[in-house]
């Protein structure tokens, strides 16, 4: 095998994976090891690779021809594209070993695992031979020194112990800090429930809200019910109102009403308005927080608003102009201004002079089919939702429409179960 024959597992996280002719396959998301009944070093079975479709597949270590500091290269041949499922005797090195509590046998010190060192043997097998551990001082682990010890130099890493013992999430969170919310959600989805809860408990409300928005519906409900009521309400407040409404709509009425009552009134009000509409209508799909300006706003002000990094590209593509108040439901809706028009005008010009009065709007009761035809007809990525009294209620973005049009498993559908990686 070219490249290194010794590596720490955390260094592999996020590395791109290439075929023999340089074609991109995906990214490394975890390493899978087989735990043994004795205390001998476990064999590294393979890697969990995330394809561009976000499906996670298993790639055996024997298929890896090169481990470099910046990439992993695979050998020519067949790759099984079935979705990865962890077997009972397997452990996810990054997802489960990190932060595991162990005892260093040489001095009896309590420690946590911060990384795992892998080494290739003469038979081309990879085994976990070393562990980087941080001594725990009192209840804290971050203050202790880090030392590298042999796998046999610690106790506490049996499968039953890993499954049962409470773990922190400090090291795993350090990895997640370098990943987008959608990638963290994909990683959480693959973790055992116990580990998923520990990670959720360690996240701050804003980060957990971002990740929840990217999780499948069942995972969302599972994590929300795991949280205590007060924290669940705080996380819902941090979510986008339309995502919070979608999640609450799936809960029993008692739980939904209880959580809404625990939210701050100004945060729950837009969520309650969204819950009044069916999920497959423009009112149910919309966000109540588009960029809304008054007619006397300048182009410079409009551009400053759309530069907000929290806005999705779709919502940043258009600003809506309305009479005060600007919060939805607004005063009389006047029209919209496309970002391309803003970029062509002088910064001190008023948006009132460039409003598109002719672009149609959607009724909050417009069906999903009507919304879809609207986007197709006008070639837009965001659309205004206006009521009978000409108040702007919110905006529907094309990504929300796609989420409702595609089947739940669309990311995994249409792929063969195997694919050939070949040299050109």
From TrEMBL:
<dbReference type="InterPro" id="IPR006669">
    <property type="entry name" value="MgtE_transporter"/>
</dbReference>
<dbReference type="Pfam" id="PF00571">
    <property type="entry name" value="CBS"/>
</dbReference>
<dbReference type="InterPro" id="IPR058838">
    <property type="entry name" value="SH3_actinomycetes"/>
</dbReference>
<dbReference type="InterPro" id="IPR011033">
    <property type="entry name" value="PRC_barrel-like_sf"/>
</dbReference>
<dbReference type="Pfam" id="PF03448">
    <property type="entry name" value="MgtE_N"/>
</dbReference>
<feature type="domain" description="CBS">
    <location>
        <begin position="354"/>
        <end position="413"/>
    </location>
</feature>
<dbReference type="InterPro" id="IPR038076">
    <property type="entry name" value="MgtE_N_sf"/>
</dbReference>
<protein>
    <submittedName>
        <fullName>Mg/Co/Ni transporter MgtE (Contains CBS domain)</fullName>
    </submittedName>
</protein>
<dbReference type="GO" id="GO:0016020">
    <property type="term" value="C:membrane"/>
</dbReference>
<dbReference type="Pfam" id="PF26205">
    <property type="entry name" value="SH3_actinomycetes"/>
</dbReference>
<dbReference type="InterPro" id="IPR046342">
    <property type="entry name" value="CBS_dom_sf"/>
</dbReference>
<feature type="domain" description="CBS">
    <location>
        <begin position="286"/>
        <end position="353"/>
    </location>
</feature>
<dbReference type="InterPro" id="IPR000644">
    <property type="entry name" value="CBS_dom"/>
</dbReference>
<dbReference type="GO" id="GO:0015095">
    <property type="term" value="F:magnesium ion transmembrane transporter activity"/>
</dbReference>
<dbReference type="InterPro" id="IPR006668">
    <property type="entry name" value="Mg_transptr_MgtE_intracell_dom"/>
</dbReference>
<keyword id="KW-0129">CBS domain</keyword>
């Amino acid at each position: 095998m070219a490249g290194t024959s010794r590596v720490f597992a955390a260094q592999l996280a996020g590395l791109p994976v290439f075929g023999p002719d340089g074609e991109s396959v995906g990214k490394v998301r975890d390493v899978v090891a087989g735990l043994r009944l004795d205390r001998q070093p476990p064999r590294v079975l393979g890697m969990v690779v995330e394809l561009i479709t976000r499906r996670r597949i298993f790639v055996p270590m024997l298929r890896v021809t090169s481990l470099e500091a910046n990439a992993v290269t695979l050998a020519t041949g067949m790759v099984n594209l079935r979705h990865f499922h962890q077997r009972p005797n397997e452990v996810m090195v990054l997802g489960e070993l990190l932060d595991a509590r162990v005892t260093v046998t040489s001095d009896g010190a309590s420690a946590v695992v911060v990384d795992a060192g892998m080494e290739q043997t003469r038979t081309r097998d990879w085994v976990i031979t070393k562990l980087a551990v941080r001594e725990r001082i009192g209840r804290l682990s971050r203050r202790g020194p880090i030392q590298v010890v042999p796998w046999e130099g610690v106790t506490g890493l049996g499968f039953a112990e890993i499954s049962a013992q409470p773990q922190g999430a400090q090291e795993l969170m350090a990895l997640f800090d370098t990943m987008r919310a959608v990638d963290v959600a994909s990683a959480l989805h693959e973790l055992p429930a116990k580990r998923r809860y520990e990670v959720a408990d360690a996240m701050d409300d804003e980060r957990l809200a971002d990740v929840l928005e990217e999780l499948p519906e069942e995972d969302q409900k599972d994590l929300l019910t795991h949280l205590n009521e007060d924290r669940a309400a705080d996380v819902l407040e941090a979510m986008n109102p339309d995502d919070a409404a979608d999640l609450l709509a799936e809960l029993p009425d008692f739980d939904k009403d209880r959580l809404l009552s625990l939210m701050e009134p100004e945060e729950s009000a837009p969520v309650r308005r969204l819950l009044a509409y069916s999920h497959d209508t423009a009112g149910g799909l919309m966000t109540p927080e588009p960029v809304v300006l008054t007619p006397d706003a300048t182009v410079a002000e409009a551009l400053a608003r759309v530069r907000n990094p929290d806005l999705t590209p779709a919502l940043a593509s258009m600003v809506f102009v309305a009479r005060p108040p600007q919060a939805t439901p607004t005063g009389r809706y006047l029209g919209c201004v496309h970002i391309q028009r803003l970029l062509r005008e002088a910064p001190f010009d008023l948006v009132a002079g460039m409003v598109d009065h002719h672009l149609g709007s959607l009724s909050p009761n417009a069906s999903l089919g009507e919304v879809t035809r609207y986007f197709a007809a006008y070639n837009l990525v965001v659309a205004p939702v206006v009521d009978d009294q000409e108040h702007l209620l919110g905006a529907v973005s094309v990504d929300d429409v796609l989420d409702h049009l595609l089947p739940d498993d669309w990311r995994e559908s249409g792929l063969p179960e195997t694919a050939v990686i070949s040299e050109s």
